[in-house]
Amino acid sequence: MPTQRKIITSPFIRPIPLPLSQGVQIDNTLYISGQLGTDYDGNLPEGIRAQATQALNNIGHILTAAGSTFGHVFKVTVLLADIADYSIMNEVYALYFKSRFPARVAYAVRTLPIEGGLVEIEAIAVVGEIIEA
What is the pLDDT of residue 39? Predict the structure, then answer.
């Protein structure tokens, strides 16, 4: 059976002129590109709490566009401009992931792709039913 590929876009995230997709679904696996804390108008709020919230909201929009949810996310990568923001990012993260937590890694990076960016988050999720073992 051939592999199915679908490009996922949310109308709630402004398209950016870069050679990347918001999300790519391969069969029932959804790969979400790194999301910064920018809103639809490209505004970047101040502070790690606000940026982490917006980045996760953006991930939520892509999950919804694909017919998935935060409960279907199984892997997350977090990039932080300052590892000292790790605990605040975790507080925000816990509002979106409440149980059956995804595997996750967090790195401190020298810079992020947008000036003033404090966090970028990418995710991998399942689209469709998950049977818990």
Answer: 94
- Percent of the chain having pLDDT more than 90? 91
Using the Cα atoms of residue 121, residue 40, residue 6 and residue 114 in order, give the sign of their dihedral: negative
Can you give the pLDDT at residue 65? 98
**What does the pLDDT average to over 77-92?**
98
Query: Tokens representing 48?
Result: 């790690």
In angstroms, what CA-CA distances link 69 with 3, 9, 16, 102, 117?
Answer: 22, 15, 23, 12, 25
23-26 and 5-8 strand pairing: antiparallel
d(CA 104, CA 71): 14
- CB-side exposure of 37: number of CA atoms within 13 Å? 22
State which H helix or E strand residue 93 sits in: helix 86-96
pLDDT for 1: 85
Q: What is the pTM of this model?
A: 0.95
Inter-residue contact 38 to 118 (CB < 8 Å): no
